Amino acid sequence: MAVAIKLPYSGCEHIDDKVVSKVKGVRSKNSELGLVVYTCLDCPVNGGFSSLDNHFKTTRHGFAVSARSVYCGRCNDLVYDPDFLLSSAKKRKLAQTSDEDDSYMTSNTSTRPCGREGVRGLFNLGETCYMNAVLQMMVHNPLLASYFLGMGHPIHLCPISKEPDKKNESDSEDDEEGEDKEQKTCVACGMTEVFSDATQADQSLPAHAVNLLFASWKNIPHMSGKQQQDAQEWFILIVDKLHEAVSQNQDSKLRCDCFFHKVFFGRLNSEVTCDKCHTTSSTEDEYSSISLDFKKQVKKKKKALPDVKTAVPNIYECLRSYTAAESLSAEQYKCRSCDGPRSASKRVRVRKLPAILCVHVKRFGMKIVGTTFVQEKYEGKIDFPLVLDMGPYTTQAKSAAVSDQYVYDLECVVVHQGENVHNGHYFAFCRQDKKWFRFDDEIVSATTTEDVLRQEAYLLFYSLRSLASA
């Protein structure tokens, strides 16, 4: 699939230079007057937000603007464009500095990540809620914040971003050279910019992830374009691309010691034991998320509790099922020692745990309607804890006492609303300074622990407690 070349600077495709010019003029007048009204760009009509749609239907005038927002009649929504933010932002003239000033600032500047006041939403750049939900988890994780805000990936030294971006022959030679500099194809550079933008304490407007979105489109072509994507798929692919961006040993992940590998990747141990000769073969596989079979666990619980109307499984039950031994038929396994097909038992357990554990509740599948396969979603609540002990599900389960080595604290819950994986909306609940917030794109609201635990989780992100207390 070809990667879209046009950078999605705006969620509204109807904005052009003429509209931007009009907006700047009208916005300046409204700002000076302190008005909280919308002014039509094509006529002198002023009015509140509720009257905008009727005015557009009557006159077909395209845009209205207030001191802080722009309304598009064809989108029937408030829209975002970086030029509007730049025109409304207050700018200060930089003062000339002396050599003594430079010396003082150098000796008194710390590379320690800045403290953050408040929280910020992220603009939806065109069905990018799947990305925004995952990014909020990352931005509010102290370990990742220390890395990206502490020059873990210096953009000015990145060899990927320094490489010129390849253009299609159909691209115009008049394309702005400055725009190419912003269209970085390195996902680590794009992520660094998101952290820098989203953690600015003096900014009240939502942040945006334009360059990261463009980089992910370049690096993950099948997920490019303005369409809904699977948040779990994007997460596992973007962390893999972060690993590739900084790793010099991309072909051998098991031996990689890069930051992202330690943070996001674990290892699963799979053992198969022959029922006849009892020979055991063992293999290891990497994982960046553990996928739990929600539908299977609901059926299992309903069978065990037939009188219960609503069967609500919990994470521990799903993990026990995930790591329990399962039988393999002779058609499924060939024993090397017996040199032939044999029945066997297979068991998967966690060999290595990551610093940030992603638990994926499988909610999407297929069903047959007539003679056609159609997508479906498995609705329903799953109980999940604020504190998760992974010790019983590891290869050291017999000797694993409850300790911080295996204990995780809940940091983020991603929720999906909609009928299937390519339809609906994602939002996230993230914890910061022991307080919970709901992030619905650019809208941020405080919430309670009880409200978080009531959600029908799709992704659960846990942080290893031993690292938080280190």
UniProtKB/TrEMBL annotation:
<dbReference type="InterPro" id="IPR013083">
    <property type="entry name" value="Znf_RING/FYVE/PHD"/>
</dbReference>
<dbReference type="GO" id="GO:0005634">
    <property type="term" value="C:nucleus"/>
</dbReference>
<dbReference type="InterPro" id="IPR038765">
    <property type="entry name" value="Papain-like_cys_pep_sf"/>
</dbReference>
<dbReference type="InterPro" id="IPR050185">
    <property type="entry name" value="Ub_carboxyl-term_hydrolase"/>
</dbReference>
<dbReference type="GO" id="GO:0006508">
    <property type="term" value="P:proteolysis"/>
</dbReference>
<dbReference type="Pfam" id="PF00443">
    <property type="entry name" value="UCH"/>
</dbReference>
<keyword id="KW-0645">Protease</keyword>
<keyword id="KW-0378">Hydrolase</keyword>
<keyword id="KW-0805">Transcription regulation</keyword>
<keyword id="KW-0833">Ubl conjugation pathway</keyword>
<dbReference type="InterPro" id="IPR018200">
    <property type="entry name" value="USP_CS"/>
</dbReference>
<feature type="domain" description="USP">
    <location>
        <begin position="120"/>
        <end position="465"/>
    </location>
</feature>
<protein>
    <recommendedName>
        <fullName>ubiquitinyl hydrolase 1</fullName>
        <ecNumber>3.4.19.12</ecNumber>
    </recommendedName>
</protein>
<dbReference type="InterPro" id="IPR001394">
    <property type="entry name" value="Peptidase_C19_UCH"/>
</dbReference>
<feature type="region of interest" description="Disordered">
    <location>
        <begin position="160"/>
        <end position="183"/>
    </location>
</feature>
<keyword id="KW-0804">Transcription</keyword>
<keyword id="KW-0788">Thiol protease</keyword>
<feature type="compositionally biased region" description="Acidic residues">
    <location>
        <begin position="171"/>
        <end position="180"/>
    </location>
</feature>
<dbReference type="InterPro" id="IPR028889">
    <property type="entry name" value="USP"/>
</dbReference>
<dbReference type="GO" id="GO:0016579">
    <property type="term" value="P:protein deubiquitination"/>
</dbReference>
<keyword id="KW-0539">Nucleus</keyword>
<dbReference type="GO" id="GO:0004843">
    <property type="term" value="F:cysteine-type deubiquitinase activity"/>
</dbReference>
